[in-house]
Protein: TM2 domain-containing protein
Organism: Lutibacter agarilyticus
Amino acid sequence: MEAQKVDMFIMANVKYFESHQIAQIREKLIQMDDSKWGLVQTLQFKEPTTSLIISLLAGSLGIDRFMIGDTGLGIGKLITCGGFGIWAIIDWFLIMGATREKNMAKLQQVLY
């Protein structure tokens, strides 16, 4: 893959991943077969900031976890009303990282 294409992809999508993952992503994208490039460009990543806002507004209902695909944790938060409020508050600090990890997992499914 061309380094210029890869760098443009990374610049456009850097907010969706953890900063320590960027070098690994760049390396994998450069090594990737050109036939997968179209698939990589069509991936829809979740916005970490949106996850945080939803967590602040409706985190006790588990909507933030449902949104990123953690159905089991979403059901747990919904049944316990956000762990009686404690789990909801803890997720205010964890949800952005969890969203970025889910984005990385989605990208890795295509790359490997």
Observations:
- Residues 86-111 form the longest helix (26 residues).
- The mean pLDDT is 93.
- The two ends are 15 Å apart (CA to CA).
- Residues 3-111 form one domain.
